[in-house]
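Why does residue order matter? Because the sequence determines the fold. Keep that principle in mind as you read this record.
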Amino acid sequence: MRALLAFVVVLFGTISTQAAGPLTYNLKPVPIAPDTYVFEGTREHFHRSNGGNILNPGFIVTDDGVIVIQTGPSRRFGEEMRAAIKTVTDKPIRKVFISNLHPDYWLGNQAFADVPIAALPGTIEGIKAEGKGMTENMYRMVGDWMRGTEPVAPTEPVYGSTVVYGSHRLRLIPLEGHTAADLAIFDETTGVLFAGGVVFSDRTPTTPHADVPKWLKALDELEPLGVTVLVPNHGRIRTDKAAIAQTRDWLGWLHRTLHDRMEAGADMAEVLNLPIPERFDSLGVLREEYQRSVAHLWPAMEQAALPRVN
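Structure:
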């Protein structure tokens, strides 16, 4: 009985706390370089407690207007993001860039529907094909934070090129590996790299659409850039390129380990519980993302490795 009463108190206490005011992300623009700001997300997985705020979207204030990079996981986030940008500048939004099809990158698009929203063609196709299902899944994971959110796909395809806005030269770098189309944006003026989906920092990489060998090649393409500030899609913002090496180390270990265990005849249940080297202990949601990666990658590897019997 005491346990039941305690449960009821906790339940109603939680409800009354939630009802005390509207949900808000409390977004605060963090300056990271001249004219350049980021909204730092958590290093967690999607959850009702964080509203899906696990990404690092940002914006650049140029003489030609504001360039927005990612719009966040919900309509509410996009609206709060746009309001927060107005606390920094009254210049209009010139363009939005979306780096890949994962829902936390673009589900805030409704708040920017009056301006061009650009992405790689593969990202646009992926959002059109999977966007509805992703939106529904986000409703299941984060609940009321998603109220009013509908999928809005980017409308403007972009390719590898360098574009100029005011004094900022932005190199658009098409990559693949984390998904089939990953857009990184390197500001040649400030040295800021918005790495899109291919770099994680102190956070375990996610792999629902991953091709690990291609992902490793994408990291090789980013390594030579003269980066002064690296904005990963998830995790800590860095003033060096160490997160590229960290991501490469994890992916290399994961890829070798799964292949070695496949060749040794292990089954998926065994692989799910393998020990993880201590050098990865600093990565957020480590065990959870490792097990999700096994679930994502193992079936295809198993199908490729097993002989076909007609």
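The chain has one domain: 21-240.
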